[in-house]
Design a protein that fits this description.
mainly beta, 7-stranded mixed sheet, globular, 4-stranded antiparallel sheet
Length: 119
């Protein structure tokens, strides 16, 4: 079983920055595609960014140029650096670990961390 623990959320003013971290308790972390998703009140959970085992990154259009996803396989940790934050970035941010084994997709989720962008 994979456990994901997010940290780094909080309250920040518009234009500010935050760095989210997600620590994974798994022995084969480097094989997982890691991602960040977010869910605002009354809305569905949406993709923010993903990074594959090979380091390929993918971003939602709304965060391109402002957010950066990275991973440290030695620490079993994935990060999301968020710059130039906007009020519309306010949401609960969830860490995701995904792996496909023999045609089956396995998804694991963290408990979420609140990010609030407000003056």
């Amino acid at each position: 079983q994979v456990q994901l623990v997010e940290s780094g959320g909080g309250l920040v003013q518009p234009g500010g920055s935050l760095r989210l971290s997600c620590a994974a308790s798994v022995s084969s972390f480097s094989f997982y595609t890691m991602g960040w998703y977010r869910q605002a009140p009354g809305k569905q959970r949406d993709l923010v960014a993903t990074i594959t085992s090979g380091g390929t990154r993918n971003y939602a259009d709304s965060v391109k140029g402002r957010f950066t996803i990275s991973r440290d396989n030695a620490k079993n940790t994935v990060y999301l650096q968020m710059n130039s934050l906007k009020p519309e970035d306010t949401a609960v941010y969830y860490c995701n670990a995904r792996r496909i084994v023999t045609g089956f997709q396995y998804d694991y989720w963290g408990q979420g961390t609140q990010v609030t962008v407000s003056s």
